[in-house]
Amino acid sequence: MDDTTRRGALKLGAAAVGVAASGRALAPLKDWAANLSIEETLQKHYKELSREDMEQILRHIEEKTKAEYGADVHCEDPRPLPGVKYAYALNLAICIGCRRCAEACHKENNHNRPTNTSYIRVLQMEMGSLSLEHAEVQYEGPVPAEGHFYMPVQCHQCDNPPCVRVCPVEATFKDEDGIVVVDYDWCIGCRYCEAACPYHARRFNWDKPVIPADEINPDQGYLSNRIRPQGVMEKCTFCLHRTRKGLLPACLEACPTGARVFGNLEDPESDVRWVLENKRVFVLKEDLGTLPRFFYFFDK
């Protein structure tokens, strides 16, 4: 059963049992015999895969990427680090709206080149206003523009994520370090999570990604920046293929003003903890009770 056929069958199943159905109720491969082919093994939910399964899958992804895109890649499955709860903070006082963060995200995460997709939207806002409805996304001209400030928005890695609650097959879930991830091979593309997200932070893969071989980022993570299949949801993962190995997110490294701060909430000496304890901090749409791990602040 190929990915397209499976997703079509599961969409019909989801419609039949309703949005309250669990992933286990729709898992046709859970109790199959041990002699599954690698293609069938790929259809297991991420949480049900053994380390041996995962190693086979990772090698399969590398081979498939080579065959379809002509690129040599290395795919890993970095797991959450003990004692780590990630958080992000962004200084609105010094963000200049240059969109270099969005460009870095586009390249780092192997997005479809023709659509110029990114997990980050940079909103141009009028000074004194926080009206997202009147913000400009497709602004042009020199930045920063007089009388405006800029608010990059991406996945807020909520502690109470509405996207997770509405997924009918449990394809999206919050991992132990606070990062909300998507099991791309389990996602049925229903887009309920996209509708539930109050931050417009999820993207739907309408087409098979088009990326020249020499532009593919070869350092890939199973739950993050590997090339996603057509017809699934995807989102920012705080670059977990980097951050779970002690590196910083690509968007932070690309920021020319130092507006972005990332770190471990559990570490009292981390930069992000210092920001939360010493700056005027707020979260977007706090009244919704999503409890984001993405914070905004101004210099005092």
Name its key features:
300 residues, Alpha-Beta Plaits, two-stranded parallel sheet, 25% helix, globular
Notes on the protein architecture:
The chain is an alpha+beta fold. It has a single domain, classed as Alpha-Beta Plaits. The protein has nine helices and twelve strands. The strands form five sheets. A four-stranded mixed beta sheet has the order 10-2-12-11, covered by helices on one side. The radius of gyration is 20 Å and the shape is globular.
In short:
Helix content is 25%, strand content 16%. With 300 residues, it is α+β, with helices and mostly antiparallel strands.
DSSP E strands, number? 12
Largest sheet: 4 strands, mixed
Shape: globular
CATH class: Alpha Beta
Query: What is the gyration radius calculated from CA atoms?
Result: 20 Å
Order of helices and strands: HHHEEHEEHEEHEEEHHEHEE
State mean pLDDT (0 to 100 scale).
89
Structural class estimated from helices and strands: alpha+beta
Percentage beta strand:
15-25%
In angstroms, what separates the terminal alpha carbons? 58 Å
Alpha plus pi helix count: 9
CATH hierarchy: architecture: 2-Layer Sandwich
Number of domains: 1
| Largest beta sheet: strand ordering | 10-2-12-11
The protein's oligomeric status is: single chain
Low-pLDDT parts are 14-36
CATH topology: Alpha-Beta Plaits
Topology summary:
Elements: H1 3-17, H2 38-41, H3 51-69, E1 74-76, E2 86-91, H4 100-108, E3 121-126, E4 148-153, H5 162-166, E5 172-174, E6 180-182, H6 192-196, E7 202-204, E8 219-221, E9 233-235, H7 240-243, H8 250-254, E10 260-264, H9 271-278, E11 280-282, E12 294-298
